[in-house]
Design a protein that fits this description.
It is a single chain. Helix content is about 40%, strand content about 15%. By secondary structure, it is an alpha/beta fold. The strands form two sheets. It has an eight-stranded parallel beta barrel, surrounded by six helices. Strands 4-5 form a two-stranded antiparallel ribbon. Strand 4 (about 90) and strand 5 (about 100-105) form a beta hairpin. The longest helix is centred in the middle third of the chain and has 25 residues, at about 180-205. The chain starts with a strand and ends with a helix. Bound molecules: zinc ion (ZN). The site of zinc ion has 7 residues, from helix 6.
Length: about 350
Amino acid sequence: MITQTSISYYGLNYVEHAEADFKEMKAHGVTQVILAVTEFDFDFWRPNIPAIVAKAHELGLRVLIDPWGNGKYFGGEQVSKFLQDNVENRQVSALTGEKLPYACFNTNSYRDYFKNFCTTLAREAKPDGFFWDEPHYAFPKGIASITGGVADDWTCYCPVCRKRFEDYYGYPMPKYMTNDVKQFRWREALVVLSETSKALKEIDPKLEITCCVHATQNGYYVSEYRGYDNWDMVGACPYFDVFSTTIINWALPEDFYLDITRRTVAIAKKYGKKSERWLMGYYKQPKDWSQVAKWVDLAVAEGVDRLAAWTYRGGYGTVVGAPDALKLWDTIGENYRRVLGNK
Ligand SMILES: [Zn+2]
């Protein structure tokens, strides 16, 4: 049974404008708003963030803070102040040695920055929880084939990662992605999120943590080594409450959506978490609008606990807006109301 229906929201400037938008979300069957707080918002609009969270609460919406695109380590289009202010502590290509525009989340510099970002917001804004939004290493993406594929380069080969690898395994970090490298990347990738989640729960044990990973096959032939593709390791983290998987384009086969949904629910159940599935509420829309209801019903039938969509008003007015953004938003809203039983 669906207990929460979420929508993400970028509009973190004026409380009275956010209030009008929150009322529109309520009318669209939204129960939970995922506030995409950028590094610029944190640096510049900080005084208004607590007021916006308080307004959402006043209107009966739960609030999760999403450190959207933070360090470009999380998913999202925003720019990163951390990268602007730090020429080091970046992810490094294993094959070319180039520094990349992604923070290395295994460095103490970024780990401290990120923890401070979240704990400060927890104390000041008092949200209901946090949302870890597609955390990832820069490479490889989900490009692979049964014959090997193109994703040979990988990160992170920065001095901090190399030293930590050698300290642990007793030999220099290879430039080829061996099993030790895979294990190292999985383990280290969870440290920053575990430590921050733990710190948040020490501030307030009721703060709820959702970890949302890329929706990938992770099968025998095709996998996506971006650090969080080992769903068992993610699901087993004791500080996460909700296991969530990201958006799948409406144009992908229903079988793929179903497979991701089933495996999401299975991992969540195995580790005693709630499960969440995302719907594409921006950029692309289904050819046939009835697909939205169909995929919502499939999620319900598979036992998903929560539905979420990116983003408010279908991305209307942005470069990632769906062609009929407002119709997509309305269609998702109709389905949210339907599954919650308040048609
Ligand atoms: Zn590194």
